[in-house]
Sequence to fold (248 residues):
Amino acid sequence: MSFGDVSARFKKKQEENAPPPPEERNHEEIHLLRARILGVLIRDARLANGMSEAEIATALGVSEDQVRAWELGKNAPSLPQLEILAYYLGIPVSHFWNTKTISTQEQERQVPNQQYNELRDRVIGAMLTVARKEAKLSQEELAKATGLTVEQIAAFELGQQPIPFPELTSLSSAVRKSISYFLEDGNRVGSWLALKEEYQRFTELPEEMRAFVTQPVNQAFIDIAMRLSRLQVHELRAVGENILNITF
Fold:
């Protein structure tokens, strides 16, 4: 067999194993589909906020027919228009390149209220018992410190009776715990509440710090700071000494 035959066979085998050419994409259909998805998200966000087409049209300086066309996916707003719409509706602009509607997210967040309340009353009661014992208080002493009866304390600790928030404030103070001690943190309700608390603390940071944290390029610096925060004092001291040795 000649070299030319081997080369031809090799070339043929490569052609047989080569992946098929990519199918041509119908960009018009893709754009239409994206416009329809965007329209659903716009309409859903508007209804979730109880806004009319007329109100949206006024806020964006367009006609009601234009808003209706967006929601039907016949055409689509520009990014600046989406930014104003997001600002007006009080939602992140990234919502509009998502695929999940606000109504769907609300349904996912729904919890069975009665079961949740009963379970949380028992958990809070158990936590109160633990806190009371850590504070070395009897039920009688805790009752006296809070102006409650021993029977009420017992019912609270067994989860047989919900603790009204004003009374819980007095109880937490008496057992030397903050209200946050009793907050839920083990399910989606607790996770959502914790996230809201974190967001609130984030908004209270100086503007310069918020800008730094939200820049993806700065994530490495944040990671370093997190690692440093977990070090013991002597380890931090060693790191500082090593930095001084490098810079001097």
